[in-house]
Structures are given as C-alpha cells and as structure tokens.
Specification:
The complex is a heterodimer.
Chain A lengths: L1 H12 L12 E3 L2 H9 L8 E3 L26 H5 L5 E5 L4 H9 L3 E5 L5 H14 L3 H22 L6 E6 L2 E3 L4 H8 L3 E2 H4 L5 E3 L2 H7 L3 E6 L3 H9 L8 H4 L3 E5 H4 L5 H17 L4
Chain B lengths: L2 H22 L7 H12 L8 H35 L11 H14 L9 H24 L2 H25 L4 H11 L8 H20 L1 H7 L3 H6 L4 H23 L5 H13 L3 H25 L6 H23 L3
Classes of the chains: A alpha/beta, B mainly alpha.
C-alpha cells in the first residue's frame, strides 16, 4: 500500500512529457525569455506556466503587461518546481544549486549565457526557439531583428563617427557588449572599446574626463531630462565635449540594458539624439 | 631633536610628497607645468569649469587629494583615541558601531533615492547616522560609565546596523544598479569627491582632531587606571564622553565622504605606538599624519592601477597581514 502511494507521488511529480512541438510546461527566469516567449507566438504562449518576477518591472522589461497577472512569477527552486515544468530558462547568474536541483528532478534547463553583442541576441533567440519547438518562429524573429537593425544602420550611417561612452557609476561598456554593437549601428565609436576595454569594466571619473567623449550615455528610470542636466553639471563632466555640447544622454534602463529587441530602441534613440545635437543624419 | 619630532617632520614631508605625486599622476597627458598652472588658476579663482585640464587637476585631483589626507588623518586619529579610551591596542573605531551607523542611514537614503537630490545628501545622511549612534553611546556612557559596557554596546550597535544594512540590500535585491551603488559606497571610495565633499568633512574632522589632541593628557592619565586618573583630577566619565564625541566626529566625518574604510584606525596607531611608545601627546598627532600619508599612498596606487580597486579593499588587504606581522613580531620579542 505504502509503495503504491510513493509510486503514485513519484509519477504525479514527474515532469510532463514534452509535446511533439517542444516543451509542454515552460518556466522563464530571464527577462529576455519573458519577452521572447511571448513573441514566439500563440503556439508557445499557452505552454508558459511561469515567468520571472522582473517581467513586470518597467525598469528592465519590455514584456510589461503582456503576460496575464494570474500567471505565476516563481522565484527559487521550490516555487519553480511547484509549476511542474519540463523546461526552465535560466540565466548565467542563476544559482548553481537551483540548476542542479531542477536537473535532479528531471527538469531540462536552458542556460542563456554570454551577451557579447547582437550575434548573441540571435543565438539566444535560436536556442530558445529550438528548446520550445518553435524554430520557424525563431527564424522569423531573427529576420525581423536584422531587418530593423539594417534599416536603423542605413538611417544613421554618416561619415565621421563621434565617440561615445556608456557610464554607470564608474562602469563602462567596452567591446564585445550589446552597447558596443548598438553604438556602432547608430553611427558612433565606443570609446571604451577603442581604449582596449572588452566587456564591462570599472574606470575612474578622471579617466572618463581624460577620454573627453562627445557623448556619454547614462541610465535613468524616471525624469531623464533632469538626470541629464544633473550629470552634465558634475565637476569634471562639465568640461568634456559631452558636457559642453549637450552630449549627455540619459536613457531608460529597459533600453540601455536590454539584451533583446529593446537594444534596437537603444540604437534608435542614440541615432536620433546624434541627429538632434550635430545634425549629421539626413 | 626628539624621536617624536623627527617622526612628525618625516611624516609631514611624506604627506607633502605623496600629495604632490597624487596631483601629478593620473590619466591623460598632463605634465607638471600644466598641473602647476591649473593649481595656480584654481588658487586665484580663475579656474574654468569647462577647461579639461582645469577640471582634471583642480576639480577632480585637488579636492580628492585633500579629502583622502583628511579621511586618513581622521580614521587613524579616531583609532588612537579609541585604543586609549578602551586601554586596548586592538580596539578600532568600528567597534563603537559609528561607521556602521553612518553607513546604515546613508544606505537607507540611497535605497529611497534621496541621493538624487544632490551630492551633499549621502554625506549628510551618514553624518546624521554617526550622530545618532553617538547619541546612543553617550547616553550609555552617562548611565554606565563603564568602558566594558560601552565597548559591548558599540559591538551590539554595530551588529544591529550591519544586519539592518544587509536587510536593506536584500530588499533591493531586484534593483541591480542600486545594489552596485550601495556596494561601491560600502567598499569605500574617493571617486568624484569634490570641493563640496571637502567642505562637508572639514568641520567635523577638524573639530574631532582638535578634541582628540586636547584629550591627550587625560588619555595618558586614564591609561594608568580609573583610580589613578581620578587621583590626578581626571574624571574617567568625562574623558569617556569627550573621547566618544571625538571618535564620532572623526569617524562620522570620514565615513560621510568616503564610505567604510577598514583597518586604518587599527593598524596605524598600533604602528606608531610600536615605534614611539604610548604617550598620547605624540601618538595622536603622529597617527593622524601617518594615517594621512598611508591613505594617500593607497589611493594613488588605486588610481594608477590597471584595474579599479576600491581603497577600502586595499587598506584591508594591506592592513590585515601587516597587523598580523606586527603581532607576531611583538610576541616573538616578548620575554618568556
């Protein structure tokens, strides 16, 4: 009798078998996946049984208001397991213990690692679409991404790219970052990358001033204009070309830190800002 | 010339040499002549905020160097007073919980976004935190008058503020940029410190140093024990109150502008005492001078290092092994 009960529980707790079109119960723990699972289409959406709590956070997510409020937002291995998923999309910062626990329970995990530029955006869309059995939708998303990116490149292509730095409390984005690719697409040169910095690195304020970039990008969450003015008036910053010529750009965090389609909005805003300040774009 | 006087002159020269070095080194191609010209323009008030060299030398390097020296003097001077107060060379200003009290209030301010109102907000909040912690400690000192109770109360307050700060960080778990900002502040930093920061720190640290030097004779008397001190006309309770006030002003002022910097208050007075003896009349000013030169050296190293290192981490990385070495050396010399 006891064996039957244990056996019954084990069967009940076993992850569901994946459907012919991919995973049957998907949980996302990454904002990028929260966004992309929605855009992969109506075949995928009903199979999503949980998204990350940050899906509803307008500071980081472009998926705000997409997923129903009643859809669970699990955090932690126990809450994720309670959704009885067969696929969990996790980030590189997800605890190894969580991943190990899920895999011990027979749950497949897809870890989205490395965001070194737009090539990784395409790679992760492809991986995610493949994991949920939506390869065709994934291919279409990548094509849409590239089409929009090409249009933006053509729109903002001019000679004489000005220098730009992404600055967040001392941290700059160098080469092999989404920002570097976005800056290049909008017609800028990433000054940190030009100084040999790869990835995100902390530098001193004095170094930023010595670089004297034409544009400095900072993040904002609410009053971006006030943030620009406050930053541009800081000692040292006011002496840079960015400070003197209105080249400080405060950008909403969900665009500046986006690792998905939101990065295209970053390209658009950077390019338009350049057009507004130096009149270089057509 | 006495040994203490030689140390004072040598320390003063070291501070000057390190300050000049700190002004001359840094990013960008600025030579010594340009640095001197920019300092000259700054001193006569003709510095231009939109000139790149003036900005780097007069608006970034000069106030930073002065803030670093002031904070180094404050932390080491505060350490010397704390060790004299508790008659224990292992005591540190942080045991009174003042730096953690200051850090807690500043972190709450950052969490609530108050720091966006201006660069003066975080220093002001840190000073308020230090002042509030001081108030609690003074209340305890008045009621108890016992150095051990004061020490334990400081440890308890520090633990409470440390836990509360961690709690705030946990509540901000989904706000990554906030977490990074708080963490950087907790690690101690002189990045972007301006003349405004110097103005905020000078009054409390100046008053704290003056009070500490004025306490030298009383702390010497206290070192002989409460009864002997009383027989010499020194009230242990009154000394306690003034010493706690001095430490709060020094550590509160330093934490307000630089965040939390560890080990300087422990190691520097210990080194000075080891070389020159325990007399507070030389110990207090020399600790301040050595503290200023040590922190100037550390900050200059972090500025020219290929990777950005928080000075608080470097002071701990250098201070902890140096302290162990001093301890072991002293033990090996002690007769068995």
């Amino acid at each position: 009798m006891a064996c039957a009960v244990v056996l019954g529980l084990a069967v009940a707790c076993r992850p569901p078998e994946p459907t012919a079109t991919g995973s049957a119960r998907i949980v996302s723990q990454v904002v990028f996946a929260d966004e992309e699972l929605w855009h992969l289409g109506p075949d995928v959406r009903p199979r999503v049984v949980g998204v990350s709590p940050m899906a509803d956070d307008p500071r980081y997510s472009d998926a705000v208001g997409l997923w129903p409020a009643e859809l669970p937002r699990p955090t932690g291995a126990e809450a994720i397991a309670a959704q009885n998923p067969d696929l969990v999309v996790i980030a590189e910062f997800t605890a190894d213990e969580t991943r190990a626990l899920l895999e011990q329970m027979g749950v497949r995990t897809l870890r989205l690692e490395g965001w070194d530029g737009f090539a990784d955006v395409r790679r992760h869309i492809r991986e995610l679409a493949g994991a949920v059995g939506a390869e065709a939708a994934g291919t279409a998303r990548i094509a849409a991404f590239d089409a929009e990116l090409d249009a933006l490149r053509q729109r903002f292509a001019t000679a004489g790219a000005p220098g730009i730095v992404s600055w967040e409390d001392g941290s700059v984005a160098g080469g092999k970052t989404i920002f570097a690719d976005a800056a290049e697409a909008a017609g800028f040169v990433d000054v940190a990358a030009a100084h040999g910095i790869a990835g995100h690195r902390t530098i001193g304020l004095e170094s930023l001033v010595a670089w004297d970039p034409e544009y400095i990008v900072i993040s904002c969450t609410d009053d971006c204009t006030a943030r620009e003015q406050e930053f541009a008036a800081q000692p040292g910053i006011a002496a840079t070309r960015a400070g003197r010529r209105g080249g400080v750009i405060a950008m909403p965090t969900h665009h500046l830190y986006s690792v998905g389609f939101g990065a295209l909005e970053m390209v658009r805003q950077l390019g338009e800002r350049r057009r507004g300040t130096d009149g270089s774009a057509p | 010339m006495s040994r203490a006087r030689r140390w004072a002159i040598g320390g003063g020269l070291a501070v000057a040499a390190l300050a000049i070095t700190a002004m001359l080194v840094g990013p960008g191609d600025i030579d010594a002549t340009q640095v001197l010209s920019a300092i000259g323009r700054g001193l006569v008030g003709s510095s231009r905020a939109d000139d790149l060299i003036d900005a780097q030398v007069w608006l970034l390097r000069a106030p930073r160097v002065l803030v670093v020296a002031l904070v180094g003097a404050a932390l080491a001077g505060g350490g010397a007073v704390t060790q004299g107060l508790f008659r224990n060379p292992l005591a540190d200003p942080s045991v009174l919980g003042i730096s953690l009290g200051a850090a807690f209030v500043a972190v709450v301010g950052i969490f609530l976004g108050l720091d966006r109102a201006g660069v003066w907000v975080t220093p002001l909040l840190a000073a308020l935190g230090a002042g509030a912690t001081l108030g609690v400690l003074l209340g305890l000192a008045t009621r108890s008058g016992d150095a051990t109770t004061l020490l334990l109360a400081g440890v308890a307050l520090g633990a409470t503020f440390g836990a509360a700060t961690t709690c705030v960080l946990a509540l901000a778990g989904d706000r990554h940029e906030l977490g990074i900002k708080v963490l950087r502040w907790l690690m101690g930093s002189f990045e972007g410190r301006s003349w405004g920061h110097l103005a905020v720190a000078t009054a409390p640290i100046g008053a704290g140093l003056a009070l500490a030097v004025a306490l030298a004779r009383d702390l010497d008397a206290l070192a002989l024990g409460d009864d002997v001190a009383a027989s010499l006309g020194v009230s242990p309770r009154a000394v306690q109150r003034r010493a706690v006030t001095a430490v709060a002003l020094l550590v509160g002022g330093a934490t307000a502008v630089a965040g939390v910097l560890g080990f300087l208050g422990l190691v520097v007075p210990h080194v000075v005492r080891w070389r020159l003896g325990s007399g507070h009349r030389s110990l207090l000013p020399l600790s301040a001078i050595v503290g200023a030169s040590t922190l100037l050296a550390v900050d200059t190293l972090t500025r020219i290092a290929p990777v950005a290192l928080p000075p608080g981490i470097v002071t701990s990385l250098i201070g902890a092994p140096a302290f162990l070495w001093i301890l072991l050396r002293q033990r090996s010399r002690r007769p068995t």
